[in-house]
Amino acid sequence: MVHVFKGLFLECDPPTKQFLLFVSKQEHFELIDIDETHLFLQGGNESTIATIQRCIDELQNRNTYSVFDQDK
Amino acid sequence: MKIFQYLSSLNQEDLDQLYKDNWTCQAILRSLPPIGKQFILKLLMIDSIEFEQTKIWTQEISNQVHRETFKKLFDLKLLTKNKTCIQLNSIFQHNIKQSLMDMEHRVFSSDTTVKELKAPTIDELDQFSKTQWEKVLYLLSDEKSDSIPLISELLQSSNLTSRDGNGQLAITSEGFKFLLKDIYTQIWTLLIVYLDTIEKKYKSRIELLCFLFKLSFLQLGRGYLVSELTQLQKTLLTDLKQFGLIYIKSNDNPYFYPTRLIISLTTGKTLSLMQDIKTEQALSQKEQGYIILETNYRLYAYTSSSLQISLLSLFVKMLYRLPNLAVGIVTRESIRMALIHGITADQIIDFIRHNAHPNATLAGTPIPDVVAEQVKLWEAERNCVDYSKAVLYNSFPTLDCFNATVKYAKELNLFIYSNDSKKILVIDESGNEPIRNYIRKNFG
């Protein structure tokens, strides 16, 4: 029988997808892995997407190195 | 022009009411584009004309302009259509005729015999309106200043600023776009919001609109008697002073002075006929760009205006300020703050390009490609996950069932994504019912 899930359909690049899979374990999101660049977030809503955005933001902040930091 | 959009949104009764005022009719006529003016004048002395006949008024190549102009005139309810004939709005027609015949008509009597002791000069008026309007714009960029309650209220209700999580006022992306526009569009934007609030309070929007149009016929540098105005107009006068449109020395002063801003409000140009071209050129020189952005992300702003510097500090980390120069640096962090406020990368790039120093423009690139690209990348990294509300179907019993459902979803325009090998179909959220019914009916 066909299964139906409601939620958010996510599209991103492969590294981000891996990161999202990692985040989903921590935050206990139900992610369905579709392919390299697509994920489905079961029962996702605005607040879960906000959490995801925040996690990505933190990751990017950790990985940013600015030449101007030395100016300070 | 902004005001036409607003007028077009009014209903027939309001507009008829508005057109009863002679000066309003004139102001509208003179702010129409040239071809619109021509059409009005052609129709002025005739009762009605077959719409078909108007086709010969323009050449075939300007068909587009022709149609647009007529649409505009119909929107403003200046023209009415009666089966196949068109005619001018009779009230408007009457008033324009009237004003053509009566050249002696004056808006307000300006009392030149009783010279006020310290009448402001034109330069002083220009200076006043400039600083006043800068103050208004300054409210947009500076979160802390709440100095003009009326204006900051207007800015909020027009969505140019909004309170963020901490209750602090901050500029919105709308507000940033607003800053990129020319001054008359800016004034109209605020005035229209102001009119709406007035309408709620006194129900007299039309009267005030007429008053605004009237004011634009006054002469720069002349004083006019406050006592000739109605009570409501006097209230408006004090508010207009805050916009820098009107100058009154103090509240009980018998004279008020129009500034250049209100006089050219309906013409949309800084040009006023009384002024010689040289001063106009000098004025536009001052309005020139001031930003030089280098490939090393350093930004030099040749300006002494706090407004411009505080605008820049929305997306630039300012380092030092010298008397005529401010130096800053574009960093990921500073751009990120701007992006969080809802300002887009394109807006930032446009802003820099718009205000680039003439020398930077001469060199070819007002904004170095490397910086522009980087700003766009910084924006892109914030939006690296695309999402849409959707419904996912999997575990289809047969491949036929899967293919048929995919085809059906595509027909209904609900299809988002499908994966053949895993037999997964993703459709738009709204399409759950029809798809489910389809599967149940055919394969259930």
UniProtKB/TrEMBL annotation, chain A:
Primary role: In NER, TFIIH acts by opening DNA around the lesion to allow the excision of the damaged oligonucleotide and its replacement by a new DNA fragment. In transcription, TFIIH has an essential role in transcription initiation. When the pre-initiation complex (PIC) has been established, TFIIH is required for promoter opening and promoter escape.
Q: Where in the cell is it found?
A: Nucleus
* Similarity-based family: Belongs to the TFB5 family.
Give a yes or no for keyword Transcription regulation in this entry: yes
Q: Which domain of life is it from?
A: Eukaryota
An example Gene Ontology cellular component term from the record?
transcription factor TFIIH core complex
* Keywords attached to this entry: DNA damage, DNA repair, Initiation factor, Nucleus, Protein biosynthesis, Transcription, Transcription regulation
Tell me one GO molecular function of this protein.
Answer: translation initiation factor activity
Coiled-coil positions: none
The record's Gene Ontology biological-process terms are: nucleotide-excision repair, preincision complex assembly; transcription initiation at RNA polymerase II promoter
Originating organism: Tieghemostelium lacteum
Protein name listed in UniProt: General transcription and DNA repair factor IIH subunit TFB5
One Pfam family per UniProt: Tfb5
User: What binding partners and quaternary form does the record give?
Assistant: Component of the 7-subunit TFIIH core complex.
InterPro entries documented for this protein: TFB5-like_sf, TFIIH_TTDA/Tfb5
Is Transcription tagged as a keyword? yes
Automatic annotation (TrEMBL), chain B:
Keyword annotations for this protein, in alphabetical order, are: DNA damage, DNA repair, Nucleus, Transcription, Transcription regulation
Please give the function described in this protein's UniProt entry.
Component of the general transcription and DNA repair factor IIH (TFIIH) core complex which is involved in general and transcription-coupled nucleotide excision repair (NER) of damaged DNA.
Give the protein name, as stated in the record. Answer: General transcription factor IIH subunit 4
Species of origin reads Tieghemostelium lacteum
Give an example GO biological process: nucleotide-excision repair
Localized where? Answer: Nucleus
Q: Does the keyword Ribonucleoprotein apply?
A: no
| InterPro entries the record matches | Tfb2_C, TFIIH_p52/Tfb2
Which regions form coiled coils? Answer: none
Gene Ontology cellular-component terms for this entry are:
transcription factor TFIIH core complex; transcription factor TFIIH holo complex
Q: What is the lineage of its organism?
A: Eukaryota, Amoebozoa, Evosea, Eumycetozoa, Dictyostelia
Which protein family is it in?
A: Belongs to the TFB2 family.
